[in-house]
Amino acid sequence: MPRRNLAWLLGVVSLTLLGAAVLYSAPTREKDKDYEMVRLMVDTLHEVRERYVTPVDEEREKKLVSDMIKGGLERLDPHSTYIDPEEYKQFTKTSKGKFGGIGVHVGADPQTRGQLTVISPMPGTPAYKAGVLAGDVVLKIDGKATEQMRLGEAVDMIQGDPGQTITLTVRHEGAAEPIELTMAREEIHVPSVLGDLRRADDPARWDYMIDKTNKIGYIRITNFGETTTAEVRVAVEQLEKEGVRGLVIDLRNNPGGLLQSAVEICDLFLEKGAIVSTRGRNHEE
């Protein structure tokens, strides 16, 4: 083979190898940067595990990592967040507007030193019928103490398949001794559209007319779920039958939900024009 051809072939091989090396090194350097940032989080977690003043169990470690991610995203902007699997499961249930349970809102009340406390039972639900009251401290769920129980774990234990029984050990506000209340779970429908007061003739329904003299209606939308549009439509139709002249729509403390639901509700009141548009980082989005 002539020397000129051999040199040409060697040059092609060299350029090919150089190109491959460049292509390989670029993503490798990018991965190294990613691993370095992840390593910082791992090292922090290891220091907490080994040196924190009290032992940190696996559940607290998971929450710590989740809080790290959430805190970082919140520094980007107040609307970016991380939804962990447990929160996503609850979000899905809330969006559907129904789940298997007993119909009770619970939370950690600072006035009871963070104990699991009933905020309110929903009228007509198993909890309401069994005698669960607002302000009750829930001491046990099916015999398991709630003192060290996370709120999410307590909610998971209370919810379940319709027909299954559950026993709550509660202490009524002002009572000295706790009592046990047993009830069967049902399919609970959680309304996302509320009024100002319950109807006197039917506590399970809302009275949406807040000012009967001036015929002003009031609708509070707690979140935008799959059933919200239909609930708003029913409330508006009820108000129209009562001769409503004006309407207040209360969105305070509404965390959001399904965009399609929000668009559909706006469409009930708007005759023309664009309701919402979205734009992503890339033009094709």
What features would you describe in this structure?
This protein is of the alpha+beta class and 285 residues long. It folds into 3 domains: 3-76, no CATH class; 99-189, Roll (Pdz3 Domain); 193-269, 2-enoyl-CoA Hydratase, Chain A, domain 1 (Alpha-Beta Complex), CATH 3.90.226.10. Helix content is 41%, strand content 21%. The chain is built from 7 helices and 14 strands. The protein has helices spanning 3-51, 58-76, 85-96, 126-130, 151-158, 228-241, 259-269; strands at 98-101, 104-109, 115-121, 137-141, 144-145, 165-171, 179-184, 186-189, 193-194, 197-198, 206-207, 209-211, 216-221, 246-250. Strands 5-4-6-7 form a 4-stranded antiparallel beta sheet. Strands 9, 12, 13 and 14 form a 4-stranded mixed beta sheet that branches. It has a two-stranded antiparallel ribbon with strand order 1-8. The longest helix is centred in the N-terminal third of the chain and has 49 residues, at 3-51. 17% of the residues are buried.
Quick one: CATH class of the largest domain?
Mainly Beta
Strand content: 15-25%
How are the strands ordered across the major sheet? 5-4-6-7
Assembly annotation: single chain
What is the element layout, followed by pairings?
Layout: H1 3-51, H2 58-76, H3 85-96, E1 98-101, E2 104-109, E3 115-121, H4 126-130, E4 137-141, E5 144-145, H5 151-158, E6 165-171, E7 179-184, E8 186-189, E9 193-194, E10 197-198, E11 206-207, E12 209-211, E13 216-221, H6 228-241, E14 246-250, H7 259-269
Parallel strand pairs: 13-14
Antiparallel strand pairs: 1-8, 2-3, 4-5, 4-6, 6-7, 9-13, 10-11, 12-13
Helix pairs in contact: 6-7
